[in-house]
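[Q] Does anyone have a clean structure-token version of this?
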Amino acid sequence: MNIELELNGLNCLDCASKIEDLASEIQGVNSTNLNFVTKKFKLNIDENQEAEIISKRVIDIIKHLEPDVDIVDLTNNKINNLEINLKLEGLNCADCATKIDKFTNSIKGVESVNLDFLTNKMKVKIRENIDMEKIKLEINHIVKTLEPDVEVIDLDLKRDKEKKTSFIDKIDKDDLYRMLISGILAITPILFGFTGIIRFIFYFASYIIIGQKVIIQAFKNTMAGVPFDENFLMTIATIGAFVIGEYPEGVMVMLLYQIGETMQGIAVNHSRDSITSLMDIRPDYANLKMNGEILTVDPEEVKIGDLILVRPGEKVPLDGIVVEGESSLDTSNITGESVPRSVKTGEDIYSGVVNLQGLLTLKVTKEFGESTISKVLDLVENASSKKAETENFITKFSRYYTPVVVFIALGIAIIPSVFMGGIWREWLYRASVFLVISCPCALVISVPLGFFGGLGAASKTGILIKGGNYLEALTEVDTMVFDKTGTITEGIFDVREIHTYGDYSKERVLEIAAYGETYSNHPIATSIINKYNREIERDKLSDYKDIAGKGIEVKLDNKKILIGNKSLFQSNNVILSESDSTGTIVYVGKEDQHIGTIIVSDKIKDNIVSDLKELRRIGINEMVMLSGDNKDTVKQIGNQVGMTDYYGDLLPHDKVEIFEGILEKRKGKSKVAFIGDGVNDAPSLARADVGIAMGGLGSDAAIEASDIVIMTDDIGKIASGIKIARNTKKIVIQNIVLALGVKLIVLGLGAFGNASMWQAVFADVGVSIIAILNSIRALRFQE
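[A] Here you go.
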């Protein structure tokens, strides 16, 4: 059974974590999932439990920690999110994909459209009370109008299974026959020396056979109000060749164009296959243990609490905890780490990793839709909706470029022959050359593919980038701001010293501190509770207050307890004996008396010094560390790791203010990245030009709050991400320069009569294929 609540007004991420932790301790609750972004709180409970009783207890916890939150019970009042999922099989034209996206967006009742050209998948969100089947028919009509050969597959009715195809299978057989027959008809007049009407008939038949699809499509698109595509350009150019009697050129340009389109389609598919093969981490099945049998089922059919068997060599289909067996796991699919990870009974495993050795039995802890692999796949697939500035520029550029070239070609054909006494036939031929080379395919396809390749290369190394815009922004970063705990340091604290005052023993001070910290999930609180290592009777506590940036105020056996920093004691007018020890200092007070001080230390991450040196080497000139820790500790760590600046004793709002100041200082010059653990840094991660969350594996908060997620705690991967981003940008610029350079040269030669239509079509098709194949290099980046 499931309970679902909506927590309107929940704006405290730390409180959300506490609510989830406390709710998970309620007897009968199997799992909890509080999505801070959507404010939806989902709980899975035992079937034999009273949902109303558990729901009331959960609401009491929420009201205790966040009394102002408005709670809506959605358990029996589900709001359906209407979405159409389609696959456009055979869509290889990026320009057509843009038009399909645009026209689908204009359908009445459609809220948003996301057409991913990489996977050919299209997600269409529609408003309530709209006829979904009618919308599907309109989308199908748009697709068939623009691309008649594209097959529209409804993924909501049937999950499409990808097939591995050979080189020859990727070529449409009908197109192959048309090219062959057209080619034979085109060379026949040359071989037999036909002249006059017989020569024309052979060339005209060859032209119609090879060009009929292009001509019909150009006519349909013009009637639909979308002229100036490649079909229109090739039709006008080749008809112009026939008008002036250049039959062989008209036929051969259309034939070469069709051959080029076929090769371009193969190149696009090769690029797509190379990239999507990296994303091929979705498990196809799960081995479900039920009534003593093993059933092979779809992972989406498995419920929380079910037992699944994972054999050696199989992908782990769902997140779970090991209840039987030991093995080693290949986590490279998710983290990019090549070193296998050992697991044993009682340890958590995330979906998407591969079991290498032993037989494992897992108890499922998350349904497939909420699993790690599902979130990673969703993030990667949706990355295409966030386009880079370069990509947006090229889309806008191509929108104006083609019409401008068409009108220039019209001017070349008319002005010299009508007003300057030029030969009409010669200038019409030059205009036709102009039209052939003006197709923007090389730009429209290669630029997005380059960014797709960069995103794929990053994901292969365990760096999830949410869009091409963030990948491109990463190339402009020269300032990085780091949160200390969990980012520069491991975030694993140990109680190192306990100082006492008055008649209190170390054990008593530790006990009081542990009781006071019991509702906190902060790593420092966890270290104190672990050091105490005894059962805590929570009914002894009352009037709990978590004071942001200061500490905790609570009553223990009706006695006022203070646990926190100097600021907390000062605000309560409690005189304390300040400590100058290195480490995080936790002061403990009782009944307005300072009774003890606990020193907690954290460890700097391995390789952090060399990782930060590498960042400095590749152009990160300014590195700043922010921390709520005391200034002496922050100074020591900052100097040790090589920070250019550092700030300590900061409250949460102090961190935001300092970060805002850094952003303002760099505004208009370069971009600033913020690096944190994704849990307590949501405001800074969201405000940064590039927000990077470390250790995102299994952390919903990290994936939701940031622009880039490093799936492990390895700071060194930030440098890898920057190198991948710069390499991708370099390849994209190469493609733009190559495409525009070649086109401008041939346009110039054509305008002055020094280029033929054959050369123009070779240049157009050739530069497209070269640019597409060059884009694959972004995927195969090596440091």
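[Q] Thanks! Anything notable?
[A] The mean pLDDT is 84.
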